Amino acid sequence: MRVLLVRAESSGGIGVHVDNLTRGLREAGHDVDTLVAGGTAAIPAIRHAARRSAVDVVHAHGLRAGAAACLATRKRTVVTLHNAPSNRAGELLLRLIAQRADVVLGASHDLVDLAVRHGAADVRFAPVVAPALPPPRDTFPALKAGLRGELGLGPDDRRPLVLAVGRLALQKDYDTLLTALTIMQDRYGADGVPPVAIAGEGPRRAALQAVIDRRRLPVTLLGHRADIADLLRAADVFVLCSVWEARPLALQEALRAGVRHVIATDVGGVAEVTAGRVPLLPAHDSEALAEALRRACAPDADPDADPDAGPDADPDAEPDGGLEQDPAPSATDWDALWPGPADELAAALDAYQRS
């Protein structure tokens, strides 16, 4: 088949998914063109690309690209939903997609249900799969020492290191994380607050930095990073505090990397990813997040007894946040629980076929 894959500008999960799908389709022998299209130029750009390549299917990703594809062409149109609408405009885009797309794919089952409620006739689940982690660039102690040095932490600072990964946007709700750290600071003093690194870039950077500076929190905004796998290997605690996610790639990567303590909010498809192996928190709950961080970062935390300890914690680890140990082998075979690349490709190919 000749397939046109369309997405808006994205450096996050949608971009990774489209890259994976492009590679898989080409390896399976299909002719694939990709298009990054946004704004008022999206509709004519999609129409031109579909005609030029004489495509059989236009597969768009996201609400804006999906709506534009539905308006741009009469070719078979498949739209993958990666996020739920956050406002009235998004609701209108979803309604248009539900009415006009030949097939709507949801990256999590709640998105499938949402598309059905908006009137879509053919809706299916299509997993978004995180690619395998690249091999580490250095030894695990060196990776830990490197990141801690980058954050200005001295060799005598034994506090566990907390990492969050994701765009600096409202969806990720880093404000709740900063509030949780402020609660810890007020209750336990500056030494009771773990150092936090946030990898990602976005429109909330200035606002978040202002809060960090005003409250004197030990939080570093790392910006966009190409070494996420190594950052995860260097972290002792991973936090995902989003108000909504489908199948977050960063969470999949953290679990694969064997981060000792994983803290996540019970939103969207997160429970599907964690499969009951990780205690989940309600969104927007800074008190619950502060308590989960306190337990994960406690110097005498026992992973066997702590209900908030991550699924891959090492019961033999020294009580120092694991600064000297390599990450424990994963106690859960996550790839056996999750859909894989073959499932990701099969879902797309099935949607491309006319009944």
UniProtKB/TrEMBL annotation:
Residue ranges that the Swiss-Prot or TrEMBL entry lists as coiled coil: none
InterPro entries assigned: Glyco_trans_4-like_N
Keyword Ribosomal protein: no
Annotated signal sequence range: none
UniProt entry keywords in alphabetical sequence: Glycosyltransferase, Transferase
Biased segments, Acidic residues type: 301-323
Keyword RNA-binding: no
Superkingdom of the source species: Bacteria
Domain Glycosyltransferase subfamily 4-like N-terminal: 39-126
Region ranges (Disordered): 298-340
Protein known as: Glycosyltransferase
Species per Swiss-Prot/TrEMBL record: Catenulispora yoronensis
